[in-house]
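Before relying on records like the one below, remember that each one covers exactly one chain. Contacts with other chains, cofactors or solvent are not represented anywhere in the record.
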Amino acid sequence: MLTLEKFEEASEIVKKVTLETKLVYSDYFSAQTGNRVYLKPENLQFTGAYKLRGAYYKMSTLTDEERAKGLITASAGNHAQGVAYAAKCYGSKATIVMPTTTPLIKVNRTRGYGAEVVLHGDVYDEACAKAYELAEEHGYTFIHPFDDLTVATGQGTIAMEIFKELPLVDYILVPIGGGGLATGVSTLAKLLNPKIKVIAVEPAGAACLKASLEAGKVTTVSKINTIADGTAVKTPGSKIFPYLQKNLDDVITVEDEDLVVAFLDMVENHKMIVENSGLLTVAALKHLNVQKKKIDLLNELKQTIITDAITKGLDPNAPMKDSGVEWIGEVPEHWEVCAFKRKITINNGKDYKDFLDNEIYPVMGSGGCFAYCSKFMYDGEALLMGRKGTIDKPLYINGKFWVVDTMFYAVPAK
């Protein structure tokens, strides 16, 4: 059971590994909406996201025996880094199962904290099934990324900080995938002030919570189609679902196209790059039919120096190139953009290898899809790779690569 006493305990424990991220007042979004809008920049945490709160608090409640067995979890990136960092603090082994579509920057950072990474499945749910399989096989202690009341309590410590800094907050908008963050934040918010409104925001292409609330029971959506990889979940947590039913006041769904607009708004007005799941609350602002309210947006802002790669000519309405993908902004000279699903196959049959975590470039794909990409190497040649939206047929570029669906990469033109 989630209690005020447990939230207070968790708030003290997570202080050992987290920063108290101060709210950022947004003049731009306040003027646009007629409200007082604040951002909660959890990207400033050591692992770049709020997930460290839940992971570390959960670790603190485990027995020495449970930690000695080694830890395992499934995650699209942020919980992975939280568990890896918490395991490092306690001197425990961590194994993380991540979807093959996880951005490379998150994969590499997770490995950087000493965790073993296993890539499996297209979406979180498939990775989670694999993690359970490995836990059973090796006897690992499983830490669920969201369907765990202890983890949700740790995530909810964010609300404690919000009330401390903005005690008269009227609305809290929280992104939701499986529901751990929303459970913790909404439950504590209602304990502290029953009149506050807590609204969950999820991608329209992964609206499992909306479907579940409408059905009155945990429901699995049949298909995931969103660029918000951190919230691409088919089924919300069953243990936490009653808390979501009780404490959430509404659920807003956001289309991927709105995330593109929100990204540009954040770049142009706050000079910040925000990951797609963190953009959900920003994009949802236009769906709120309220004014003169104090609104807090929970998001993961990726504060980055804005380089020439994205400052020259950001234009979401620019025409698509023949390849079906194009860059918004400048790209390195003599580069071509391609697309693929999970694997590049070179003519000699070798697969891509030697991933590098270097520059990140924003990309606009056909149908308004949006993504980031990172560099990797193939036989000493630098390539760029990352997630994107939909390309529904094979593409052949220079007769060298074959490519199918959901991913993109860029190569130096021959």
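The radius of gyration is 21 Å.
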